[in-house]
TrEMBL record:
This protein's name: Cbb3-type cytochrome oxidase, subunit 1
Pfam families: COX1 (PF00115)
Single Gene Ontology MF annotation: cytochrome-c oxidase activity
Transmembrane regions listed in the UniProt entry: 12-32, 52-70, 82-102, 114-134, 146-165, 191-208, 220-237, 249-266, 287-310, 322-344, 365-387, 407-428
GO biological processes: aerobic respiration
């Protein structure tokens, strides 16, 4: 059972590598279309990149939740056959998606640009996953399990909603179809955030040993705020569609409040943690604290984007991409890498592995910062020139943006190498044969400084 779960976690890390490589190639194809259009055009690389990123986040979250649930709840073993069915179907369908891309067979809608019939095995796989993991929830259930189960169920709902366009009635009106599409994609982010935030709470509990945080009012308030968020924060995803302003403003306010509370909980966790506990789970701890920084950075950017005057220049530009990349890499990917590091008991692995991860992770922070800022500047320049100089030729406009895209590409190379090194090291690490807690004697103060 665990052998298959380990394989799917490794498969998710391979998807991260595909995301990085395809993203870099897509940036190069965007900058040098005449060179790349002959063999790897942008219109092929973009769906490969976005689908790989989507499956990396969703798949890694689901597989980590599955592994930790089965590790801590032996009673689930009677349903392990359903869990295996999920993993086989999930992996084979994703492989089929990329085979179709390679054959230039597309379909679907944004982020799900493969032939629509492949959504059926994905749907079946997710139903198998929910059945294999679901346990009765009550007052004694840890908060992270509430988050996991909520994320699993709401991903199913939003996935069905995202595929509503296949019903002819929705396609009769472009506005109706695009509203449902954007709304579903926005709510889907909230669904996988529930799973990922649940993993972060699980790690904070395991690192600190503080059982109170599993049932505290603050934790449950955050859970219900996240639940409300995934149900209603989609309003700002349909900002440019006919809608009432109060709905947009309420959606943004709810979304920002959720991040503020997550930021507060992680900061409280850091303050109450002594050095010995940090040392016992140093790798996972560093990924968590890095996510804290990017929560704060993306919170500031998202607040700016919610201001109508700023949104006039930013919407649909590289600023939107910066917000998405900061969230996808800085928050989701870092938390998932922390969870995988915890599952692998990375602090019990060879010292050289841990030191490479720590050094590379620090470099990633700088590269991601350059990557993020370059996208923001490029987006602002493009948005400003588009609005203020509408008669400017598109070629001239892009010439003004190109230097920042080149800087973004340079930082992307560094980020690809850094995250790629971490993914490869995690792929090489053997899984522990049994549950065992790392001990601080295996790590030195030098490691903490690195």
């Amino acid at each position: 059972m665990f052998a298959l779960q380990r394989f799917t976690i490794r498969f998710s890390l391979v998807l991260l590598l595909v995301t990085l490589i395809a993203g870099l190639l897509a940036a190069c194809a965007y900058l040098f279309p005449n060179l790349f259009n002959h063999f790897l055009p942008f219109q092929l690389l973009r769906p490969v990149h976005t689908s790989a990123a989507l499956f990396w986040i969703i798949g890694a979250a689901a597989c980590c939740v599955s592994y930790l649930q089965y590790e801590s709840n032996p009673s689930l073993n009677e349903k392990k056959g359903w869990n295996k069915a999920f993993m086989y179907l999930w992996v084979f369908t994703i492989i089929a998606v990329f085979i179709h891309y390679g054959l230039n067979q597309f379909g679907g809608r944004e982020y799900w640009e493969f032939p629509p019939y492949l959504n059926l095995p994905l749907l079946a796989a997710w139903i198998f996953l929910i059945y294999s993991l679901f346990t009765p929830l009550n007052k004694s259930t840890p908060a992270y399990e509430w988050m996991w189960m909520t994320g699993l169920l709401f991903f199913l709902f939003t996935f069905l909603e995202q595929n509503a366009w296949q019903i002819p009635w929705f396609r009769e009106s472009f506005r109706r179809e695009i509203t449902v599409q954007w709304k579903a994609n926005g709510s889907m982010v909230g669904a996988w955030n529930q799973m990922i935030y649940g993993l972060s709470f699980f790690m904070m509990y395991k690192i600190s040993g503080d059982r109170k945080m599993l049932h505290s009012r603050q934790t449950y308030f955050f859970y219900f705020l996240g639940l409300f968020n995934l149900m209603f924060n989609w309003g700002h995803h349909i900002y440019n569609l006919p809608n009432t302003n109060w709905m947009r403003h309420v959606a943004y306010a709810v979304s920002m409040t959720e991040w503020l509370f997550l930021l507060k909980i992680i900061r409280d966790f850091r303050k109450t943690l002594d050095t010995a506990k940090k040392l016992r789970h140093l790798v996972s701890y560093r990924f968590l604290t890095a996510a804290e920084f990017w929560v704060a950075a993306n919170l500031i950017l998202a607040l700016l984007m919610s201001i109508p005057a700023f949104n006039r220049y930013s919407h649909g530009t590289h600023i939107t991409v910066a917000h998405a990349m900061g969230t996808t890499i800085g928050i989701n990917t870092f938390i998932l890498l922390g969870a995988i590091s915890y599952i692998l008991r990375a602090d019990l692995q060879q010292l050289k592995y841990k030191r490479i991860i720590n050094i590379t992770h620090k470099a990633n922070q700088y590269f991601l910062g350059i990557f993020w800022v370059a996208l923001i500047i490029a987006g602002w320049v493009k948005g400003y020139l588009t609005i203020e100089q509408p008669k400017m030729h598109y070629t001239q406009l892009m010439e003004s943006v190109t230097p920042y895209i080149e800087l973004f590409t340079f930082a992307g190379v560094g980020l690809m190498i850094g995250l790629g090194v971490i993914a490869i090291i995690l792929l090489l690490m053997p899984f522990p044969q049994k549950t065992i807690e790392p001990t601080h004697e295996l790590i030195t103060a030098e490691d903490l400084q690195n």
